[in-house]
Specification:
Layout: E1 5-8, H1 12-17, E2 23-26, H2 32-37, E3 45-48, E4 57-59, E5 65-68, H3 73-77, H4 80-85, H5 87-94, H6 99-104, H7 107-112, H8 118-121, H9 163-169, E6 173-178, E7 181-186, E8 209-215, E9 223-229, E10 240-249, E11 252-261, E12 268-269, H10 271-277, H11 284-294, H12 306-324
Parallel strand pairs: 1-3, 2-3
Antiparallel strand pairs: 4-5, 5-8, 6-7, 6-8, 9-10, 10-11, 11-12
Bound molecules: flavin-adenine dinucleotide and iron/sulfur cluster.
The site of flavin-adenine dinucleotide has 31 residues, from strand 2, helix 2, helix 6, helix 7 and strand 8.
Amino acid sequence: MNPFSYTRAYGLDTAVEEKVDGANFVAGGTNLIDLMKENVTRPQHLIDINHLPLQEIEETESGGLRMGALMRNADTAYHPLVEQRYPLLAKAILAGASPQLRNMATDGGNLMQRTRCYYFYDTATPCNKREPGSGCSAINGFNRIHAILGHSESCIATHPSDMCVALAALDATVHVKSKRGERSIPFLEFHRLPGDTPHLDNTLQADELITAIELPAKGFADHYTYVKIRDRQSYAFALVSVAAALELDGTTITDVRLALGGVAHKPWRDMQAENLLKGKQATRENFQQVAESILANAQGFGHNTFKIELAKRAIVRALLEATQNEHKS
Ligand SMILES: Cc1cc2nc3c(=O)[nH]c(=O)nc-3n(C[C@H](O)[C@H](O)[C@H](O)COP(=O)(O)OP(=O)(O)OC[C@H]3O[C@@H](n4cnc5c(N)ncnc54)[C@H](O)[C@@H]3O)c2cc1C
Ligand code: SF4
């Protein structure tokens, strides 16, 4: 039993004042409480942020949306402005977890959720993410759900979120606040690759609170899809997922976004590979070429090597679906 204290914050300033070493914010609690029950995380103090005024979606002057960090995943996915203008985001959110979890989980918490690596949850095994310097049990262990891109000798874990894959494709921005002030983090710089510091999942500083996630005006609402491949049809994390969004002039690709989930420590974007498609025809051959390029440096660890071919096929399938499904916004 690890004793901890609990307070409820009603204002942003109070919330960040209380965020000292050993303290954790709790939002929906769908990940943090599990981690506490498993003894993986042992906060001394919990700051309940559910009453902070961060539960609205607002239109921005630049034509985008600003989503408060405490929006529930379900409320975000079913919000009319998200459904209309960012259906890729809605589709990715609804591919995740279960209705009950999505009703509870918040958007800020979704960004911060931790890996589903089995060894990370098993405190009887070494894990560099849980206990820096102890080793990685997955590299030579059972690594079916692990990374094939961007991994290091220290950690081969993946980021488990679906929502974040769409946010990466849409070039979102994360707004954060601390006692030191406010700042904005481009989404692609929010999550990290493991390197030799896999205990750090992201670039949020220990004293910072996520206040909002901002979407730029461009939502790719006409040609998009989110393909999620998993062991069960529902209520399972992605083995591989792909968020694909296209802008087409006839059959010519004028803009493209492609982000992968389930393959790396962060949602994976490869701009060089995306550029290969700009100005090209939307054909299976061109999609196959981009898939080969994205996976060119992929490396599996035995149990997860199947993901390399799976990811290529998922990319081609997603791009074909995005081309063929015309949703008139
Ligand atoms: C059985 C199960 C299945 C799931 N399946 C999927 C799935 O298929 N796809 C998917 O994407 N997700 C899935 N999830 C994960 C779920 O989406 C996350 O648990 C959820 O999004 C976390 O949000 P929360 O508000 O509950 O976070 P909490 O558990 O409250 O917090 C998680 C972490 O975020 C921090 N935090 C929360 N809000 C803020 C903030 N505003 N600023 C700074 N830090 C903050 C907390 O301190 C904590 O460290 C699943 C979860 C479960 C339990
Ligand atoms: S892959 Fe990462 S999270 Fe999993 S055991 Fe290795 S160090 Fe820990």
